[in-house]
């Protein structure tokens, strides 16, 4: 940690801060500069505790932390890439993995139809919501356990493992009965009791970035899960809120190589929710793989005009086939195989 | 709802959209413009359902919704100001109400000391966290039930009702045993199971705006609570995330008169979390009241340098006294009394 | 400056960086920490030059600057408040100064009517645009020199000094012939040739914050003007772009006390452009003064429904009178007189 | 245009608005809805003028514009792709075009060295700044005309056309003497006198998106140039400002397909300025081409540690060669040739 003093701080104030640092059990290193003095701190084994004691002392302008606040998720802690295995599916290895399916499980027939279609086109995991967080209380909120049962049936029928969103600690045991991987949605990225509970569940987790979360916030949220002994976490970039209203969210693909550099966890991208428009899904799916993402999660619906949720961003199966062909070409250019 | 057609959409495409609108049971009103045609829809009793059917038709450029998505919270539904009563304290009436207390309950002595200090300075409700959502899993997360007991004791000692944050459905019954008002924190503003549960609890709720939530999102979150039959909701502006890194968040005081115009619910402001700096609390507290806020929620600590949480934004009691004097002067200028 | 090394950087890499710092003529101070080493630099008289030499060395994670990049505008350089005088009007002293007038000079009659109205209500400076930057090339762009002449006539008629926007170096001499104070608009805040030219002109300058500018960016833009020997600069907060689309911009009132702390220059607020709605002007005008602003710049139009520009945010004279009364009450609460 | 009435607006208010619309020479179409009435307007040949007359009438809640504010740049006005030719280089055709060179022209030797290196690696146009807009007045601002002369010499030596930034109307004639294409920087995207002047110059223009500009703002800025009779405009996405401080800017690749859909103009991407880090340039260059960009503009320096400007984001020639190889593989996957 570095304590930056104000320009007008005199020797007495500087010495008082040094004395306080010593009283905290650390070693101060005053460094006079052209306009102000900075004081380095050494001797700490982790983040400097009670730093507020320093922040509020006379003459102190700013504290600058050097130690990053997360640990288990960082590449400094664990240098190699972590592989997350979900049945036969692997995230974080050489292969590009595609998760696809409807936004919401609406009916048995709808889900099976879409599951077969995406399986045939090359997806290796099925997505589908049984519990849906919706901005409006009057929107459709999912079929609940009935939806989970349909997903399990689709798994039997297609052999694909199933991922679905879990919204609270109360329904977590029920979701675990049916799902192979648990999704934490963007609105719950900082729901800490839920993060802890999915950590303890031992199930693989897909953690979506909150739409106002920095990359650091996302890594700290993942740290909650790893801190419970569960390292099977896949991160997901899905768009952030910005001033630009052209699209629903701004897909932050620069986060993909940054996360790869800061962390050992796999990263995938959700091009459907980022834009909210089906015609943006293909270019953004290609760009995500070119940026280095380990996979995609994509919404598909055979009759999107009648979808109960997010129909405007769902691909019809034919477009999904086209997307898979284009993504495969980009994966080849990246010297990565498609998972199969 | 208005369907905007593309500039090149021909008569056949326009007629097809009109036919679909009729098939949905509504009435289309085509309006040719200089570059494109727009089609108005009437005959709907609520938001147009299955609008995606229209959005994906050939030649359709955009759908524009006219009906606002919230209802119970809107001033159109309920014209007069709602008063929220918590014991002797009223939000939304002429008086300006100040909630104050420590960020976190640390010890019995700390909480009682601060409670007496803020009471004496004119606060009428006590705040204090027993369960703390923290960005890092390694930070202090609160005393839990022990903290709630201390808050209850502080209520006995000072006569002030107590507000504290509830973080999940599981601990809600325990929090309700001790608290007079429930706080939903910014990170949980879109935790819908929790919103529903506090709605059903019947307790008064302080709903803090998420730091990436629009005013509309905040009103929709409140709609979840009101939809459970609980209209005792106070809204709280506490800063949003923007590109500017000068302060921790950007306090959006323009939201205060906007919410007052759109909704009948009381609005207060949290100047402590918005900036993360104690020296910003006084000017922003004054500005909030001048903008029309019904009150404030402020962090106070008698020894902030040693606070376990957010010490850098806590006022010492003397500064809080100064704040109360300044706020009282602004309230007088607004022709509002201070609650007592 | 502080050089933060990567966690895995070994002694050889650390020594190489220290050697490079010595070769640059500075003194390195290595400080080993729990996870990584940081190296402080002293001996520099200004910002460390060629810091990129260090940034690209093996094992270097990050450079952290301690010295702030602006100088002449900083309170550390000049502790007392700067007073900016424009004829009889003073910015930055105890009095609250109100600039008012039409968005655009449309006709002689319109400008004189509004000038007399705002003068009578207590404004002490007249605003009005003769050259208007407009997002669309098809919008009205102002009367040019004819507009300047009308402004000068309004000055004669009312005794108020006149402020108007200057858009480029080419028209600066013409604007200087008529105006008493030059306005740099938000879109030109980083138009450096223009900043330099108004600096050299010696005229007092009102510098509006760009809607994507941080407080630091604004201070650096002002530094361009001061660096030409012109310290008569008034800063103006007018709203920034954020994800929230409730209003046109988000007024960042927290910037007011921050600027007062970092700089000696006066600060005023533009509540008209921030929101784009006349019904937001009153509450935001009050809040700005309560936050500590030295004044306001407000748009007034006697017939806003027919205004050629920004009619939706202009106050009618009666509302402006009401605003002045309310602002005066807040100023009294702040123990500041209104300028007269 | 659609006029949305307030929920409580009665028949008299609705009729008054209809009467006003008729008085303006247009035709009103009232459409009663479940909670409020909306009134469509037809009969206008362009954007409805003096809409403020309606906005300020009693009972009016909101005006919604249907007609897009730009025209010449829109695909509705001109359906086919525009090709912009600069000497032998074409933007907007099948080939992917790479512009490369130093951030700033520092010396003759530096520029020639880099020019030869990027030429050999496959770049077809040379970039280099002679006039540099810098946030700080104390930073290096370029060599001016001497820099332009060096660029012209590099053109002779390599055969590549030259692009350089023009900062103001005053130096435009000098820049035109030496340059083949004019760059408008992000900070000048809304410098309207400059946009008009480069429009009149007849030179091809590279218009960089302002870091707080929406896609619509960018298209309107281009409209200024086209409106002067100059359609040789290439648009450039270079990152926007968001709350995330992980990187300097957030590259908005979703803008690429959106611009392609809304406009006929070519679009390229600047991966160097977006992130401010050289190690982000390769992944973002690949992603940009995969998203459908027509080319890239990239900073290269043979000795970036000693670069006078932006060294931390410049690629060394070897990394640029690697980038070209990777980009070529992505271009192949997109079935596009690299320009040569």
From TrEMBL, chains A, B, C, D:
| Domain spans labelled DAHP synthetase I/KDSA | 93-331
Pfam families this protein is in?
A: DAHP_snth_FXD (PF18152), DAHP_synth_1 (PF00793)
Q: Which keywords belong to this entry?
A: Transferase
Q: Can the keyword Transferase be found in this entry's annotation?
A: yes
Q: Which GO terms describe its molecular function?
A: aldehyde-lyase activity; transferase activity
GO terms in the biological process aspect are: aromatic amino acid family biosynthetic process
Annotated ranges, domain DAHP synthase ferredoxin-like: 1-67
**UniProt xrefs under InterPro entries:** Aldolase_TIM, Class-I_DAHP_synthase, DAHP1/KDSA, DAHP_snth_FXD, DAHP_syn_2
Instruction: Please state what the protein is called.
Output: 3-deoxy-7-phosphoheptulonate synthase
Tell me which species this is from. Candidatus Chloroploca asiatica
